[in-house]
Amino acid sequence: QWAGSCWYYLRFIDPKNPSVLVDKELEKAWMPVDLYVGGAEHAVLHLLYARFWHKVLFDLGLVSTKEPFKKMVHQGMILSYAYRDSKGVYRSYKELEIAEDGTATTAEGETIKPVVEKMSKSKKNVINPDEICERYGTDAFRLYEMFLGPLEDVKPWSTKGVEGVYRFLGRVWRLFVDEKSEAEFEQSQTLSPQAGAELLESIRLSPVIQDSAPTPAQLKALHACIKKVTEDLDHLRFNTAISAMMVFVNEANGWQTRPLSVMRTFLQLLSPFAPHLTEELWSRLHSAFGQRAPSLSYAAWPGYDPALLIESEIEIPVSVNGKHRDVIRVPADADNATLEAAAKAAEKVQPFLEGKTVRKVIIVPKKMVNLVVW
Fold it and tell me: What's the rounded Cα separation, in Å, for the pair 168 and 245?
């Protein structure tokens, strides 16, 4: 049993070879494994044994590397409320009536306070993923798990948190579709499944999406999002990558025109997190403009232009005698003389300078200006 489970990664490289464990040239090309993700319990139950078997194979000359894995990441456990009655017996959620504050009442009338424990079948506090997927969809379930927090941290489950992510995906959908035709679909939920599906197909793309050149501000928002999501994916920071896309969506909601090229690239960024929704919108986007495109899964990952992220102007807070009074907007490369002049000329600063003399000007470049007066 252990032998088979401890070298399967090698067999995956050459699964149908009847003569040898793995072809040596293929093994040299693919090994070692770049990333091993497993819980703390895998440190013994699999990782230790896999390394032992691999070292034996290396000593036998059957593999080219001493270690099978380059990097290991422990994903944190997911916690959930568990309930134990007065007899110390764990009770499942279906056996209880759970109040808003988390306390539960048994059928016998006993009140039980929740305890946060590892999600486990033995503790009867497992959340059935099928129920979550049925209610919110697999994309929302997938996205929420990545949005819970850093991959390595222990994280508490909250079904209400799924609702927040579900609403975010709804905002993404409304960035692309025409609200009027979507409203028609919402009113049709009493139709037969076939008629409802046909009406869903008829939902039009938003007229705000146009095949036009993006503005500098739109390009900056997009490329800032590309940079953040790309870097976070490389370091498995899924939660902060999702936060960056939420920022983009909030900004794009205010655009009077949403350029086709920008919206298409955004779908590429969201695709690893919500593949079903993005594939649907990708198809609709290209069809609406008479274009044919392969599956989003085959689209090349976008790159960003650092030049587009350079700030030409920055905001600097201005204080008088240490108290914040105003904010000035100045060129990013403004010198101290320019900062001082702009701070003294600021509208909300003027009343605090009347009849007084500026004795000292404290400037922290690109951070703040403080005028000392008396």
Answer: 10
